Amino acid sequence: MPHLYPFRALRPSPGHETEVDCAPYDTMNRNEAALMAADRPHSFLHVDRPDIHFPESYDPHAAEVYQRARSELSRLIDEGALRQDASECFTIYRQTMDGRQQTGLVCTALTDDYDRGIIKKHEFTRPDKEDDRLAHIESTGCQCSPVFLAYRSETKLDAVIAAPVNETANVDLTDDLGVRHELWLVSDPEQITSIQTAFQAVDFLYVADGHHRSAAASRCAAKHPDKNLAQRFLVVVFPHNQLHVMDYNRVVHDLNGLSPESLIKHLAKDFEISSLEEKANRSPDTLRHLGMYLNKSWYRLVARAHTFENLPSVEALDVAILQRHVLTPLLGIDDPRLSERISFVGGIRGMDELERRVDEGGDGVAFSMFPTPMEALLEVADDNAIMPPKSTWFEPKLRSGLFVNPIFDLP
Q: What is the rounded distance in angstroms from the CA atom of residue 384 to the CA atom of residue 386?
């Protein structure tokens, strides 16, 4: 059974929500972040992406960059844009996108539950990205970005979390993508106990997004065993059946010495290949189907039965089939976490983005994927298996700056 706790969040002062609110730090590059923060002095991007205050060529992991994150956080507090809750609260967080809603619980979880596998993961992490998040936590004294968790839906629990949404929200804003974000603060001790009791029906939580933040929180807890608040980390927990997984596509920047014709010939061993005449069909509409953009033409790849039948759940994933039969043997991408020859493009950016990247590079190839089903993620995690990196892209994203978890002294 996971342990979930209310906490004294640092959040926008009333009336400052839209000034502070911003997109997650890892959904943009440095220049995009700088444009988003321009003329917005209270945007939380000044804390989340302190590299925007340095030249583009500057090392984003330099000590002074993290120190700038702390000074920007201090400035937002001093200027009254952020303030800390007077008492510990849960927060109910509802997101509405394209008419679809998901309602979750903002809280803190135990790093010990993560370490013991009660909070399950499904991806490996990169040490350099863990280092970055740990440095940001220790510099700011806060966990600034929540980990996105899921639990297997329980009707009674779902209802308990959703109960306050009939009341007027404490925060109600719509972001630049048209996604509505509503927050309800829960400070009543009886309601807090009711929520914690309802979660006793849950055996495990699952990391949907935020593996590096989870790992960094665990490392921080181990490094500061005398700090009680450091033994917990900031999460938002949603029922799995409300979550929307989008495709996470791949662009390989060269053909590893192959010609387009040779690549297609090799692919025919493991896929049925056909040309796509209609652009509307660029994105696959079922499992085991992949799209391929090569030499300014689109193709449909249908995985042959031997690539997925009678295999463990993780090896039967579309992203695993692509890795095992295409990326590794044909294109020479042995470890996509480390290779600079491959890029990952979230489905929210669309198929035109895949075409643009390949056309600009001149001799690469893109693969459009069918979204990994949420049930498959849970099954892989339950098997204690590891998915290929960038297997899932969740929308809508959790916003940054609306709730922050202080674990050390605030600046």
A: 7
The whole-angstrom separation of Cα 303 and Cα 288 is: 5
Residues 281-292: pLDDT tens digits?
A: 899 999 999 999
For the chain, domains (ranges, CATH) are 4-244+395-406 (3.90.1530.10), 246-393 (3.30.1760.10)
Tally the C-alpha atoms within 13 A of residue 279's C-alpha that lie toward its C-beta: 6
β-strands 248-252, 342-346: how paired?
antiparallel
CA distances from 296 to 109, 360, 363, 364 (A): 48, 11, 10, 10
Whose CA is closest to 130, among 208, 218, 58, 50? 218
Give me the pLDDT at residue 197, please: 96
Angle among Cα 312, 388, 217 to the nearest 5 degrees reads 115
d(CA 402, CA 86) in angstroms, rounded, equals: 16
User: What pLDDT, in 10s, does the model give residues 333-369?
Assistant: 999 988 999 999 998 889 999 999 999 988 899 999 9
Output the pTM of the full model: 0.90
- The 10 Å Cβ neighbour count of residue 80 is 12
